[in-house]
Amino acid sequence: MRTGSQDTGGAALPPAGDILALIATGFWRWDNATGLVTLDAEAARLLGLPAEPVTLTEAGVRSRFHPVDWNEIHGIVNLAVAEGTLAEARLRIMDEQGQVIRTVRSRSKPVLAGDIAGQYELIGTLQEVNDPLPGSPARTPVTGDWRRSREAFLLDAGRALAEARSTAEVLRVAAGLSMPGFEPDGLAVFGVRGDRLTIIGHHGQQPGDEGPFTEMSLATDYPAADVVRHGRAVYLSSPAEYKHRYPATWPLAERFRRESWAFLPLTVAGRTIGAWMAAFRYPVQFTPDERSVLTTVARMLAQALSRAGIAESERELTDGLQRSMLPTLGPDIPGLALAARYVPTGGGLQVGGDWYDMIPLPGGRRIALVIGDVQGHDVRAAGLMGQLRIALRAYAAEGHRPDAVLARASRFLTGITDSHTYGSTGGPESRTGAAGGTADPRFATCLYVEADPTTGVLEIARAGHPDPVVRIGDGTVVVRPTEGGLPLGIDPDADYPTTRVVLERGETMMLCTDGLIETGGHDLDSGWGRLRKVLERYGGDNLEQLADELVQAVHGPTSHYSTGPLADRREDDIAVVLLCRAAVEEGGAAGTGTAPPRLRRFLLTVQQAEPERIAGARQQLRELLHDWTQPEQVDSAVLMVSEMLTNVLVHTDGDALLLVEAQGEVGERRLRVEVADGSDELPHKRHPGELASSGRGLVLMELLAEAWGVTPRGEGKSIWFELHESPAP
Q1: Tell me: the pLDDT tens digits for 285-331?
Q2: What is the model's pTM?
Q3: InterPro entries under this entry (predicted)?
C-alpha cells in the first residue's frame, strides 16, 4: 500500500474546493479594504443562502449572524491580526425571522495587505457543528474563544478611552462599548458632589429619565450610592434580588424593565469618584470572567473621566485667566468703529502672550490702540503679557508720546526678565539656570497707535511687529510701512521713531499679530495674500463680521474659538484689531449718507539713513495703482518716484516726504505725486551725456508726465507730477 503523495492507482486528487465540499466545509474570503465577502457554494449554503458561489457586502453577511456573535468575531479577528495567529469562533446562523438555524465553526487566517496599516484579507472555512449551544437568540452563553475576544475588546476599549479628551467624549465611548458575549442595554455614570450623588451622563434611557436619580443623597438605599459609600461593586442578577436588597428604590428601577444590573465603583488613586451602572434586558449570572471584564472597564472609565475632568478644569481656568486679561473696547467713539478678536493657541493650557488694548488718553480727545505678542505660549508668557499691558497703560496715561511709551516699556520688560537670571543670594547666576534663579529672558513685539478720531491722524510706533494694513474706501488693500525699532525687552536704550498716517473717511485699518498671518504654514507674503482677499470682499458695513471672517480664513468657522477640534490645529495665538473711520461725518442729515470718496492716498517719509525705503515706496505705489487701466503709466510713475526720492537723498541733507493721491472714477482718475524736502535749492534741467550717471530726473518727467512742476514752500520745496488715466480699450 502506498500513502501520502505516492501513486494512488493513477487517479489525481480532486480540486481543493471539491474536497472541502465532500466534508461539508465551506470556503470564504473577506477583504476589509473593499468590505466584500466571497463565499463558495457550501459556505453560502451554511449561511442559509442558495448553494452557489456569491459575493456579498459586509452588511449582507452580517445579517446572517447572531448580533452578539458578530460583535465578538470582530474582537477575535483584531487579536489574530495583532498576533499573526488563527482566529477561531463558533457562530450562530439566523434565518430571516431571527431564529437560529444552525451553529458553525469558523477558522480563518488574516493576511496583511502589503505595508498598508489596518488593511487585510481574512481567508477561512465554515463547518457545521452538531452540538448547538443552548439558549435563545436573545441570550446565550459566550461563544468562541471568549478569553481571546475579551483581550481584544479591552485593548480597543482602553485605546478609545485613552484618546477621549473631554467628559462628553468619554461618555460617548462608554455608550458605544460592545462587550464580548454580553451587551448592556442601559448605561449610567454617577459622580459625587459633596454628600450628593449626581448623574454625569447616561445612555439607553429617555431624556428626563435621570430626574429621580439627580442630586440623590449618598445615604440613600440605592445601589450606586451603596457603591460610592463602600467602594465595592454590586451585582444584581434578577429583579427579585434587586427588590430584596434595595426595596426603597426598587420602584424607581422597575419601570425600565431590566433583568440584571451591575454597579461598579469608579476609583482613581484609591479614591472613589463615582459609580458606573450597566443594565441588561436579559438575565446575566455575572460569572467571574464577566465580572473581570466589567471591573477592568470601570477602572479604565474612571481614569478617563479623571483625566478629562482635570483637562476641562485647566482649560476653564486658563481660558478665564487669559480672557480676564483682555479688555473690552469700551464705549463707542464718535467717528470711529472698533472690533477685536483674540484666539489662544491650541493644546496645553491654551494661554499665550498675544494681547490688544484700547487706552483713553489724557484730555479725552484721543485714544491709543495697542497690539502685541510676548514670546512663548505658556503661563509665563501670559503673566508677562499682563504686566506689560499694565505698564503700557500707565505710560500712556502719563501723557507720553508713542515713541516714549515704547521706549519705557522696553526698559520695563528688560528689567523684569533680567531679574529672573539672578539667584536667591542676589548675585548673577548662569543664564542656563542656576539654583535659585530662572534663565528665561523674553521679548515682545508691539504696535502702538495714537488716534485722533476727529482728524483721522494716527501716530504709530512699532517694535518689531507686523506693519498695519489699510483698506481704502474703494476696496484697495495696502500695507502701510511704518518706522520701527527692536522688539521690546532686547535693548533697554532702543529708539522707536513714529510714523504719521491719516486714516481717511471710509478707510479701515487692521492691526494683527503674526499668528493671523502665518498660521497654516504660510509666510508673510502668502499669509498677507490670504487676508487681502477677505479685506477686499468686505462691504464696509459690519466690522464685527469682518473680524469673524478674518479669523475664519485661518481656522474655519467656529462658534467658540478657544475650544473644540479647531484648537488642535492652532499654531500660534491670534490677536486682531480693526479700526474704521466713518465714511460720513457725525451729525450729517439722516438718510443722506454718501459713498466713500473715490480717493486713494498715502504719505511716506524716506530718511537719509534709510535709502532702502525707496523700494518700499515703489511697491506702495504699485499696490495703490493695482487696477490702473494703463500699465505703462504705472511703470512711468514708479520710475519717476524713484528718481525724485533718490535726488532728494543725493542732492540734499534732509529727508524726503512722499505724498501720492489718486482721485476719480476708474478710467477717469488723476494721479498726483508730490515729493517735498527741506532744501531751498531748486532743481535745474540738465542735458546729460550718454555715459552720465545722473541728471535725467527732470528730463524723464518732461517726457512721461501729463504735467509737472516745482513749488517753493515756506521751508524747502516740492516737486510734483500728474498722470491722467484713460478708459480701458
Answers
A1: 887 667 778 888 888 888 888 888 887 777 777 666 666 666 667 66
A2: 0.54
A3: Bact_Sigma-Reg, GAF, GAF-like_dom_sf, HATPase_C_sf, HATPase_dom, PPM-type-like_dom_sf, PPM-type_phosphatase-like_dom
What domains can be seen in the chain, in order of their start residue? Answer: 16-144 (3.30.450.20), 152-318 (3.30.450.40), 326-581 (3.60.40.10), 599-724 (3.30.565.10)
pLDDT > 80? residue 693: no
Provide the edge-to-edge strand list for the sheet that holds 336-343.
336-343, 574-581, 508-512, 469-471, 477-479
Q: Is the pLDDT of residue 423 over 50?
A: no
Helical spans, DSSP H, in 598-662: 613-624, 631-651
Report the pLDDT value the prediction gives residue 264, as an integer from 0 to 100: 92
What cell was used for 395?
505710560
pLDDT of residue 467: 92
The amino acid occupying position 694 is S
**CA–CA dist 189, 174 (Å, integer):** 9
Q: Where are the alpha helices (DSSP H) in 538-630?
A: 543-555, 613-624
Q: Which alpha helices (H) appear in 268-401, and where do they start and end?
A: 288-325, 379-397
Burial class (CB in 10 A: 0-12, 13-18, 19+), 215: exposed
Asked whether 257 and 289 are in contact (CB, 8 A), the reply is: no
Mean pLDDT of the chain: 79
Mean pLDDT of 47-63: 88
DSSP for residue 455? T
Rounded Cα distance between 638 and 358, Å, is: 38
Give the DSSP letter string of 178-240.
--SS---SEEEEEEEETTEEEEEEEESS-TTTTGGGTTEETTSS-HHHHHHHH---EEE-SHH
Task: Read off the pLDDT of each residue in 105-122 and give the average, rounded to a whole number.
Answer: 77
